[in-house]
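Regression test case RT-17, inverse folding.

Input:
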């Protein structure tokens, strides 16, 4: 059972069912203080409600009477059965209004009452999005953990074919005799389609949950105090750059070349994608994109959107020009330099585009409308009354190969800016007196410098998203990539005669390119994936310190139990430790920390550096322990500055100094590289016992 304030989360379950139907496994009922709370369509049944659910009620959640009801007329313009598109300005404006409505009430009780009032009136997708953003950002709901979205809208995450079976199970079988419904790894395509080789990455539920949660924590439009976060534009660049690096790494493991960026919006797109996802709530399936689809100017009256491909091209050219000039023009017509420190942040907000964009008229809305354009080649003018494809929704976009071609393009713009910045001289890389001596990674199964991956089954509960079915769990059994946990052992010498503090930065990249040749540094630096980052103290005596660090401690990941946490199995109060949970739904899933590797063993280079804390430290950051800091590298820390003063991606975010062509040449004494390999074993492990889930 959920405690006090967490009960507001019952509003997120089974979003198409009316608010007066009991919620959660235990049948929680919101006690409506008056029939005014019921949406118009339920007014006629109002008098029967008290008795209808009377016997099914275990928890009663009192709802406060409101003096005035919120004006929902604008958000209600989106139909209940429509799909909600965050990248569409019209939908976003409505969602922003709804977020404001949830942020405004001064007390928790008022906010909960407003949320109850709104629930059956507005579109369920928009409702869940707006309420989630508000709960994440209101001071009085700190520490309430949001349920993972795959529980609320499972249809956005798993094969649509499973839902009929799930309904059958919940209607026909008792809870004890229900079997997990197997979701095969290969349901969206066959091996005839080359791109399918990396479908296990694109369609991984954990990865898609991370992406959704990241965009919840960093909305590009919402009340200003929510959007304005420290280095927000830069983190947009970095988190998506890392996704790109990870995907390319994964492709190389699967004998696929790196993604080619989408350079032309006018040529047919060879990659087709058939998502096979239903949108249960919207009673429509996500439309596919056929191979060779051609993008068209968008003019969709009902979505209130009209733009041309030429608009995107114009914004692109203006942004590229600004990058090459090293300055942008703000709304007052003033010149603002794209400096080494702040340029990337300005550019991130312009390009995404968030409401912090320095000049939306001039630089437009390139990335967001690109998503929308790519989501609609099948019905650009809405003549078929079709909704958008998976690219229109951050919950589903990463499933589609075109996501990575689009983000390869946006990343190219960021890298163009980075190439204009000075290289790091050795003085900005070294840590005087600190010398790396040895680096190895150890797995129990494979020994030294070999990591191991395999398939693992995981069960996730679909039942909270299955509207209008009997209660009780219905598990879907996912098949996901997993790796054996490993340990880094790093030996460091401190010759400075004083105790020193530094930041350990761990990265991994492929050693060879598509042709099997050693990578040049200028290519390899863009493929380095961050595995971990943490602060360490190095004693003066004895001089040598051996650092041991577990893969499960990674600063980019969150544990399995946080990605797929079970809301009701983990009752919680407002404690500090659980405060961690919410913001912490954001974070790369631990099971995807390293790429798949290959059966022969995929050769990689593990890189570790220790940088001097004096250039890393950020004033006012109280530490990265607890408080949702588990995945600080990708998600920051709630209500704090980004905990690392260096540019995100340091030391690989710049072209190298003159004379550096290889990783070896790049190294300063405080850095070290070891050759490691990732061995993929084609075995499938059964679901781990709950207590062992990491
Ligand atoms: Cu995360 Cu394009 O920003 O999806």
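Golden output:
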């Amino acid at each position: 059972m959920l405690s006090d304030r967490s009960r507001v989360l019952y509003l997120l379950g089974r979003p198409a069912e009316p608010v007066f139907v009991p919620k959660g496994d235990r049948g929680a009922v919101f006690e409506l203080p008056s029939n005014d709370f019921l949406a118009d369509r339920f007014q006629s049944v109002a008098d029967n409600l008290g008795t209808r659910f009377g016997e099914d009620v275990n928890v009663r959640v009192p709802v406060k009477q409101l003096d005035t009801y919120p004006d929902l007329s604008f958000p209600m313009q989106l139909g209940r059965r429509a799909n909600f598109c965050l990248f569409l300005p019209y939908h976003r404006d409505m969602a922003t209004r709804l977020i404001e409505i949830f942020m405004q009430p001064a007390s928790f009780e008022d906010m909960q009452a407003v949320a109850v009032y709104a629930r059956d009136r507005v579109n369920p997708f928009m409702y869940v999005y707006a309420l989630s953003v508000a709960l994440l950002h209101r001071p009085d709901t700190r520490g309430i953990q949001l349920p993972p979205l795959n529980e609320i809208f499972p249809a956005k995450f798993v094969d649509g074919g499973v839902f009929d079976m799930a309904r059958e199970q919940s209607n026909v079988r008792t809870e004890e005799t229900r079997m997990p419904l197997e979701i095969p790894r290969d349901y969206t395509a066959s091996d005839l389609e080359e791109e399918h080789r990396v479908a296990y990455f694109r369609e991984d539920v954990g990865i898609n949950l991370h992406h959704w949660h990241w965009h919840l924590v960093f909305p590009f439009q919402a009340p200003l105090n929510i959007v304005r976060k420290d280095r927000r534009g830069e983190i947009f660049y970095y988190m998506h750059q890392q996704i790109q690096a990870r995907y390319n790494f994964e492709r190389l493991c699967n004998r696929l070349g790196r993604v080619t960026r989408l350079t032309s919006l006018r040529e047919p797109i060879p990659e087709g994608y058939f998502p096979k996802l239903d949108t249960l709530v919207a009673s429509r399936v996500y439309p596919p994109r056929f191979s060779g689809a051609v993008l068209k100017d968008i003019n969709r009256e009902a979505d209130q959107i009209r733009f041309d491909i030429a608009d995107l091209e114009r914004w692109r050219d203006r942004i590229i020009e600004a990058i090459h000039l090293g300055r942008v023009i703000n709304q007052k017509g003033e010149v603002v330099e794209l400096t080494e420190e702040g340029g990337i942040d300005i550019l991130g907000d312009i390009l995404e585009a968030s409401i912090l964009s320095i000049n939306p008229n001039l630089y437009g809305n390139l990335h967001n409308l690109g998503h929308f354009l790519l989501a609609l080649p099948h019905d650009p003018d809405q003549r078929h009354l079709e909704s958008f494809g998976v690219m229109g929704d951050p919950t589903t976009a990463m499933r589609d190969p075109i996501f990575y071609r689009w983000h390869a393009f946006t990343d190219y713009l960021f890298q163009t800016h980075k190439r204009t910045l000075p290289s790091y001289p050795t003085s900005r890389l070294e840590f005087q007196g600190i010398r790396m001596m040895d680096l190895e990674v150890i797995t129990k199964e494979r020994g030294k410098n070999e990591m191991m991956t395999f398939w693992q089954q995981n069960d996730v509960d679909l039942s909270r998203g299955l509207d209008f079915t009997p209660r009780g769990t219905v598990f879907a059994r996912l098949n996901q990539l997993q790796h054996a946990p490993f340990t880094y052992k790093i030996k460091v010498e401190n010759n400075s005669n004083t105790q020193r503090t530094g930041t350990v930065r761990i990265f991994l990249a492929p050693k060879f390119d598509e042709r099997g040749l050693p990578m040049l540094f200028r290519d390899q630096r863009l493929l380095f994936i961050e595995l971990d980052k943490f602060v360490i103290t190095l004693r003066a005596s004895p001089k040598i310190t051996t650092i041991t660090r577990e893969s499960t401690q990674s600063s980019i990941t969150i544990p399995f139990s946080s990605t797929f946490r079970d809301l009701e199995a983990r009752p919680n109060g407002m404690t500090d430790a659980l405060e961690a949970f919410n913001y912490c739904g954001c974070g790369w899933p631990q099971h995807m920390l390293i790429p798949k590797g290959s059966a022969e063993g995929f050769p990689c280079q593990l890189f570790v550096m220790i940088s001097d804390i004096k250039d890393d430290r950020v004033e006012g950051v109280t530490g990265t322990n607890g408080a949702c800091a588990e995945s600080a590298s990708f998600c920051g820390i709630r209500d704090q500055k980004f905990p690392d003063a260096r540019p995100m991606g340091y030391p690989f975010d710049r072209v190298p100094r003159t004379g550096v062509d290889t990783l070896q040449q790049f190294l300063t004494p405080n850095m070290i590289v070891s050759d490691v390999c990732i061995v993929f074993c084609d075995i499938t492990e059964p679901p781990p016992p709950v207590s062992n889930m990491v």
